[in-house]
Design goal:
The chain has 12 helices and 13 strands.
Length: about 450
């Protein structure tokens, strides 16, 4: 819910692509002014290329040589007040006749996403003063953070110079309802009717002062010859990058994803089952999944630097370490990535993009349901990419229970499924929504791991 809130705020307030959404309440304290962030390389195969920051927990002053300080005045001003109430619903009806049996089913799903009144303020540093100060400062090149950049998949080091804060407590609420009915009649059998209702509710209070978004300035460039940018001109970070150029149609996307997950097919059934047992535990824990994502992006754990594993509980730390050993990144040994590195990295990237409720539902799918969902989502992506109109009765080509389940899963991803048309939430022609792409990739990877 928090990630959805910050993403929507950035979309509304920033048209230049400089403002970055805060992605986690847990990491919020590391996204304040003058904290440093690492930006990792997006491997060439990543379908959804984007700027990816990792918190370091280190402030800029820690990198400066003894005696140097960064003392710059702040500016502070109110930005906007926002409140959101979004309601969506999905109605599906299906009738089947044959073999002396008539059946009719109805399904109504609704969801309400509410954000209470939110006052926001912008707090920032004088960017010109910051640039001048950085040009005067001397940096401690022996600091562990700078040394760790030399042997990792990091493109640069950034300092946060502006943040968007919540001035009051934000009340987040999400409700989902399901109302289903089934009617059966057959020769020599009385009519049978059944109804089922369900409701789920999630609430979260985001405390006043929480950081909702930030802007960052690159101060250190990591390349063949790492260097500070004092002599080159400091560099502002840009927005989310476009989709990879070789995935402009669905067949190309499908081939690329299948190619990345092909390595799973080289494992026997027992090995795949064991791997999914470990990975599913990690996916169900946001903190463990985030730590695994950071480590995979950096290509291993640096024994001379603080580790993302240190913040995990013993059980979650053990699961992440076990998976790292499987891909050749044993924390206790020198990194030696194997063929499983790429598919795991892609799969983790996909789950990182999804909401917690969505990941839980996906992880609970059995082999048959996963395969059916994959076929349905592939069809949806084909329509989104092509931009073609869909027939009003398109749902009849899929099993009724698959359509119902797809509606629940897509809703958990923040998307909508409509019987009459392609809902705009799924994306625009040639540009599917990132959540839909992530959902597809997660299903494709899971389908390969669960394959009999």
């Amino acid at each position: 819910m928090f990630k959805r809130l910050t993403t929507s705020i950035v979309k509304e307030l920033d048209t230049q692509g400089e403002l970055q959404p805060a992605w986690s309440i847990y990491e919020n304290h590391n996204l304040d002014l003058l904290y440093l962030l690492k930006k990792t390389v997006c491997p060439k195969w990543v379908i959804f290329k984007k700027s990816k920051f990792q918190p370091t927990g280190v402030k800029l002053e820690s990198l400066l040589c003894h005696g140097d300080t960064v003392d710059i005045g702040k500016r502070q001003d109110s930005v906007a007040r926002m409140s959101v109430k979004h309601h969506g619903s999905t109605d599906l009806n299906s009738a089947v006749a044959g073999g002396g049996v008539e059946a009719e089913a109805q399904l109504n799903m609704g969801h309400t996403h509410t954000v209470g009144n939110t006052d926001m303020e912008r707090v920032g540093l004088n960017i010109n003063q910051l640039r001048n100060k950085l040009e005067e400062c001397k940096f401690n090149v022996n600091h562990w953070l700078l040394r760790s950049l030399q042997n990792s998949k990091v493109t640069g080091l950034y300092v946060i110079y502006e943040v968007l804060r919540a001035k009051n407590t934000i009340n987040l609420e999400q409700r989902s309802t399901v109302d289903a009915g089934l009617s059966l009649s057959a020769v020599k059998m009385q009519k049978f009717r059944a109804k089922a209702k369900g409701q789920s509710e999630q609430k979260m209070d985001v405390e006043a002062g929480a950081i909702l978004a930030f802007k960052a300035l690159r101060i250190f460039n990591v390349c063949k010859q790492p260097c500070f940018l004092k002599d080159q001109g400091l560099d502002f970070d840009g927005a989310m990058e476009d989709l990879a150029s070789d995935t402009l149609d669905f067949p190309a996307l499908k081939r690329q994803v299948q190619k990345e997950f092909a390595e799973f097919e080289n494992l026997d059934k027992c090995a795949r089952k064991d791997i999914w047992g470990v990975l599913s535990k990690i996916i169900m824990c946001d903190q463990a999944l985030t730590a695994l994502d950071y480590i995979l992006e950096e290509g291993g754990v640096d024994p001379d630097s603080p580790s993302y594993l240190d913040s995990l509980s013993e059980g979650n730390r053990g699961s992440v370490q076990e998976l790292l050993r499987l891909v050749g990144l044993d924390p206790s040994d020198a990194p030696d990535p194997n063929e499983l590195m790429a598919p795991f990295n892609l799969l983790v990237n996909a789950f990182i993009e999804l909401e917690g409720t969505a990941t839980n539902l996906i992880c609970s799918l059995n082999t048959d349901d996963c395969h059916k969902q994959l076929k349905l989502v592939e069809w949806l992506l084909q329509q989104v990419y092509s931009g073609s109109a869909v027939p009003p009765d398109w749902t009849v080509q899929f099993p009724e229970d698959s359509v119902r389940l797809a509606g629940e899963l897509l809703e958990a991803c923040g998307l909508q499924l409509s019987e009459q048309r392609l809902d705009p939430s799924l994306g625009t022609p040639g540009s599917p929504d990132l959540s839909l792409l992530s959902f597809y990739i997660a299903l494709q990877g899971l389908d390969r791991l669960l394959e009999q």
